[in-house]
Amino acid sequence: MTGVIEILSPSQVARARETGALVADILQSLKSRATVGTNLLEIDQWAKEIILGAGATSCYVDYAPSFGRGPFGHYICTSVNDGVLHGLPHDYALRDGDLLSLDLAVVLGGVAADSAISFVVGDARPAESVRLIQTTEKALATAIATAGPGVKLGDISAAVGEVLRGAGYSVNTDFGGHGIGTTMHQDPHVPNDGRAGRGMKLRPGQLLALEPWVMTDTDELVTDDDGWTLRSATGCRTAHSEHTVAITEDGVEVMTLPSGR
């Protein structure tokens, strides 16, 4: 986090919309290409080619926060099965039924956007994996529906936590959503659980990356030897969904929607 809470101008919000569409388009393209046998390093290479081809800049390649063993050195986070956050692309070929989470952030026109999707690879549809994904997507939709000018940050956290806990999952609040703007990670931190009525009031022009994530039977994380990939402590499956949204004068707008929508 930078300690900065930016209020973007209307022209910057318009640029965020363009950045968000690029992020969404890349994620959908990668999802369509990720099949049984696809290597995570191929996905990273595809992301690099599209990002650079669009004249955008990766937020990850030089990313070196205090909690990682930086710099990250890749263009996208690829988290598989029990991996949930900051998955470092490595030599792994996807298998039928793998649960893959892709997390992508880029800067275009001086404004960043950040989004994540989770999906099952191949033809298998493990019931618990599908339920995990659907729960994070429902929590994300609830967070977006809750956000707006004058809404307190705790209202969003409480709404997300209610969905996740209501589905029977425990919630880790160490990592969650965050402010975003001309840089990827800014204040405020947006935990995936909290108390309604608490925290700062949201203002028009603020951008937030809202990102519910959950693990099947634990709220504890462990870090891989690569210094980056965060996994469930029990080896259970995980899922992660994220959108960048802008607080507007009369509500909220999702920035990370595909350009065709």
UniProtKB/TrEMBL annotation:
Belongs to the peptidase M24A family. Methionine aminopeptidase type 1 subfamily. GO terms for cellular component: cytosol. GO terms for molecular function: initiator methionyl aminopeptidase activity; metal ion binding; metalloaminopeptidase activity. Keywords: Aminopeptidase, Hydrolase, Metal-binding, Protease. It comes from the Bacteria. HAMAP family: MetAP_1. It catalyses: Release of N-terminal amino acids, preferentially methionine, from peptides and arylamides. A divalent metal cation 1 binds at D103, D114, E242. Its cofactor is Co(2+); Zn(2+); Mn(2+); Fe(2+). Removes the N-terminal methionine from nascent proteins. The N-terminal methionine is often cleaved when the second residue in the primary sequence is small and uncharged (Met-Ala-, Cys, Gly, Pro, Ser, Thr, or Val). Requires deformylation of the N(alpha)-formylated initiator methionine before it can be hydrolyzed. A divalent metal cation 2 binds at D114, H178, E211, E242. It is an enzyme of class 3 (hydrolase). This is Methionine aminopeptidase.
